[in-house]
Protein backbone atom coordinates (compact mmCIF):
# COMPACT_ATOMS: atom_id res chain seq x y z
CA UNK A 1 0.00 0.00 0.00
CA UNK A 2 1.18 3.52 -0.80
CA UNK A 3 0.34 6.47 1.39
CA UNK A 4 -0.16 9.85 -0.26
CA UNK A 5 -0.77 13.32 1.08
CA UNK A 6 -3.41 15.49 -0.56
CA UNK A 7 -4.07 19.17 -0.11
CA UNK A 8 -7.42 20.59 1.02
CA UNK A 9 -8.43 21.59 -2.52
CA UNK A 10 -7.96 18.02 -3.77
CA UNK A 11 -9.70 16.64 -0.69
CA UNK A 12 -12.76 18.79 -1.42
CA UNK A 13 -12.81 17.56 -5.02
CA UNK A 14 -12.60 13.93 -3.87
CA UNK A 15 -15.50 14.50 -1.51
CA UNK A 16 -17.91 14.63 -4.47
CA UNK A 17 -17.08 11.02 -5.37
CA UNK A 18 -18.92 8.17 -3.72
CA UNK A 19 -17.04 6.00 -1.30
CA UNK A 20 -16.78 5.23 2.39
CA UNK A 21 -13.23 6.53 2.62
CA UNK A 22 -10.61 8.17 0.41
CA UNK A 23 -9.20 4.87 -0.76
CA UNK A 24 -12.62 3.87 -2.09
CA UNK A 25 -13.11 7.37 -3.54
CA UNK A 26 -9.81 7.02 -5.43
CA UNK A 27 -10.86 3.60 -6.69
CA UNK A 28 -14.15 5.04 -7.93
CA UNK A 29 -12.37 7.98 -9.56
CA UNK A 30 -9.95 5.65 -11.35
CA UNK A 31 -12.76 3.32 -12.45
CA UNK A 32 -14.79 6.25 -13.83
CA UNK A 33 -11.72 7.63 -15.61
CA UNK A 34 -11.06 4.28 -17.26
CA UNK A 35 -14.71 4.04 -18.34
CA UNK A 36 -14.45 7.54 -19.84
CA UNK A 37 -11.34 6.49 -21.79
CA UNK A 38 -13.16 3.40 -23.09
CA UNK A 39 -16.10 5.55 -24.18
CA UNK A 40 -13.74 7.96 -25.93
CA UNK A 41 -12.12 5.05 -27.79
CA UNK A 42 -15.54 3.65 -28.73
CA UNK A 43 -16.66 7.03 -30.06
CA UNK A 44 -13.57 7.37 -32.25
CA UNK A 45 -13.72 3.72 -33.36
CA UNK A 46 -17.37 4.12 -34.39
CA UNK A 47 -16.34 6.88 -36.83
CA UNK A 48 -14.07 4.41 -38.65
CA UNK A 49 -16.71 1.67 -38.51
CA UNK A 50 -19.22 4.07 -40.04
CA UNK A 51 -16.78 5.29 -42.68
CA UNK A 52 -15.70 1.81 -43.80
CA UNK A 53 -18.93 -0.04 -42.86
CA UNK A 54 -17.08 -2.86 -41.07
CA UNK A 55 -15.51 -3.53 -37.70
CA UNK A 56 -11.74 -3.38 -37.38
CA UNK A 57 -11.02 -7.12 -37.59
CA UNK A 58 -12.93 -7.35 -40.88
CA UNK A 59 -11.19 -4.21 -42.18
CA UNK A 60 -7.83 -5.72 -41.23
CA UNK A 61 -8.64 -8.95 -43.11
CA UNK A 62 -9.67 -6.96 -46.17
CA UNK A 63 -6.53 -4.85 -45.82
CA UNK A 64 -4.27 -7.91 -45.68
CA UNK A 65 -6.09 -9.44 -48.67
CA UNK A 66 -5.51 -6.26 -50.69
CA UNK A 67 -9.24 -5.58 -50.97
CA UNK A 68 -9.26 -2.05 -49.55
CA UNK A 69 -9.59 0.57 -52.25
CA UNK A 70 -6.84 3.18 -51.99
CA UNK A 71 -5.00 1.06 -49.44
CA UNK A 72 -1.77 2.98 -49.87
CA UNK A 73 -3.29 6.43 -49.93
CA UNK A 74 -2.34 8.70 -47.06
CA UNK A 75 -5.93 8.86 -45.79
CA UNK A 76 -6.59 5.11 -45.75
CA UNK A 77 -3.18 4.19 -44.35
CA UNK A 78 -3.53 6.82 -41.63
CA UNK A 79 -7.05 5.61 -40.82
CA UNK A 80 -5.79 2.03 -40.54
CA UNK A 81 -2.97 2.99 -38.17
CA UNK A 82 -5.17 5.24 -36.01
CA UNK A 83 -7.96 2.66 -35.88
CA UNK A 84 -5.55 -0.11 -34.95
CA UNK A 85 -4.03 2.07 -32.20
CA UNK A 86 -7.50 2.86 -30.83
CA UNK A 87 -8.40 -0.83 -30.74
CA UNK A 88 -5.17 -1.57 -28.85
CA UNK A 89 -5.74 1.33 -26.44
CA UNK A 90 -9.32 0.20 -25.79
CA UNK A 91 -8.14 -3.36 -25.11
CA UNK A 92 -5.61 -2.06 -22.58
CA UNK A 93 -8.23 0.10 -20.78
CA UNK A 94 -10.60 -2.89 -20.68
CA UNK A 95 -7.83 -5.07 -19.24
CA UNK A 96 -7.16 -2.49 -16.52
CA UNK A 97 -10.86 -2.20 -15.73
CA UNK A 98 -11.20 -5.98 -15.44
CA UNK A 99 -8.20 -6.09 -13.10
CA UNK A 100 -9.69 -3.28 -11.00
CA UNK A 101 -13.03 -5.05 -10.73
CA UNK A 102 -11.52 -8.45 -9.97
CA UNK A 103 -9.32 -7.14 -7.13
Describe the protein's architecture and organization:
The chain has one domain. Helix content is 74%, strand content 0%. It has 103 residues and is an all-alpha fold. It is elongated. The chain contains four helices and no strands. The model has no long low-confidence stretch (mean pLDDT 93).
Itemize the secondary structure elements and their pairings.
Blueprint: H1 8-14, H2 22-52, H3 56-64, H4 74-102
Q: What's the structural domain tally?
A: 1
Summed up, the helix count is 4
* Poorly predicted residue ranges: none
Write the element-wise H/E pattern from the N-terminal end onward: HHHH
- How many beta-strand segments? 0
| N-to-C span | 14 Å
Query: What's the gyration radius in Å?
Result: 19 Å
Label the overall shape.
Answer: elongated
Residue share in β-strands: under 5%
Helix content: over 70%
The main sheet comes to:
none
The chain-level structural class is mainly alpha
Q: Which whole number gives the mean pLDDT?
A: 93
Amino acid sequence: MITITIDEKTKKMLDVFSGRDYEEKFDNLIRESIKAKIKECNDLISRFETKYKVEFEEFKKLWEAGKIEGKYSYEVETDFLEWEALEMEKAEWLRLLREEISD
